[in-house]
Amino acid sequence: MLALHGGAPVRGDAPWPRWPHYDDRTEREVLAALRSDRWSVTWPGRDGGKSRERLFGEAFARYNGAAYGVSVDHGSSALVIALEALGVGPGDEVIVPALTWVAPATAVLRVGAIPVLVDVHPESGCLTGESVRGGLSARTRAVIAVHLACTTVDLDEVGAVADAAGIALIEDCSQAHGARWAGRAVGTVGCAGVFSLGAAKTLAGGEGGAVITDRQHLYQRMLLLRADSRGYTADAPGPGEYELVERGDIMGANYCMPEMTAAVLLDQLPRLDAQHEHRERRAKELEAGLAAVPGLAPIPVPRQVDRRAVYEYGIRFQPGTFGAAPIEAVAAALTAELGTRVYPPRDPLHRSLLLRPHTKPRFARLPAASVDRMTGRDFGGADHYRAHTLLLHHSVLLGEPADIDDILTALDKVRAHSPALLTKDVAL
Ligand SMILES: *Cc1c(COP(=O)(O)O)cnc(C)c1O
Asked: Which segments does the entry list as coiled coil (predicted)?
């Protein structure tokens, strides 16, 4: 019997890996930031020297092989300053995939532009060259390409469409820290790479974000945009001196990353590659097992990807693999077998509860035609992906090979018992 119906679960009491990972070194780094009295890039330190916020921006740029990096308080803010630095504003349109976390769409609204949703590939969940072409208009200024879950956008294809149309390519790498495309880090192929460093992400600071770019002009603008039009002093400040200088070239807001967060991230960044390798070993084992289960397959990864980054591991299934059971029931049954959350992707943005611009005075009077450009279409690819993909958080792949056996056993069990998921008396 399925665990959902009171049967014995596939996995007993063995705990899944905890997330986030931290140890004594993390604690020392945070304590050092606390005791420095610095707390913020906007407050002078007792000891002088660069803020941790500045050091993390530099370290993260280096990690990605980018010329410049800017630390911010959220991935959402990173999107906002990237758009503002590019000069995107009222009257402009920005292409956003229909399937993503809501921030790319709300960031476009926050700068006064209109997000135009386009469909995604039914198997990868990522927008495509063709879908971007279909979303172009005379007002399009940029496309936000989101590398989703455990794969990447086809950057050759989408980059070529963006170049031909003369629009900017912003890569949202919030789910792809450290992924590599044809020898380069994702985020360095477009004109700016945006990252969330939220608690769930593979590089986690609790709340945080970053932008990388090779363009000095964009970097200078993003620096000012993130700190109320203040840039850095040329040299590291001395004891008691401020590190920010008022500039005024472009008005900003306060999106600064706190020093305690930067301390956590400076501790976490050097661990990221080993965690990627660990996850990749487990992912390969899982894929070897999936090949033996009819109807199941991994998410496709473009051949140009030299290193995949897994944020959420996606398992695709052919229609009918779990009979007529809806994905919510399949996910609930797997969760009950495994004791760790297995879940479907979020609803596409045109149906998302989180994208409701008219509920805010600032956007209440958007013209109907703009709202229609935004969401008034069908997205067959997004719907297919949503209904046929099961996701697992990346931390599930940070354990032992036996964990993978449990996942495969649970998939097979739920598949074999899927008719039971259709009985009406099941409480989900
Ligand atoms: C998490 C995420 C964000 C938003 O990041 P915050 O740090 O929560 O603002 C943006 N885009 C994508 C694709 C994400 O997954």
From this structure: none
Of all protein residues, whose CA lies closest to atom 6 belonging to ligand 1?
75
CATH topology of domain 273-423: Aspartate Aminotransferase, domain 1 (3.90.1150)
* CATH architecture type of domain 24-271: 3-Layer(aba) Sandwich (3.40)
Band of pLDDT at residue 17, cut at 50, 70 and 90: very high
Alpha helices in 136-180 (DSSP H): 155-165
Pocket test residue of 72, 73, 76 for ligand 1, highest count of atoms within 8 A of CB: 76
Ligand 1: does its nearest atom lie under 6 Å from the Cβ of 188? no
Q: Which amino acid is at 244?
A: L
Ligand 1 atom nearest to 208, measured from its CA: 7
pTM over 0.85: yes
pLDDT at residue number 395: 98
Q: Is the peptide bond before 15 cis (omega within 30 degrees of 0)?
A: no
- Does the beta carbon of 202 lie inside 6 Å of ligand 1? no
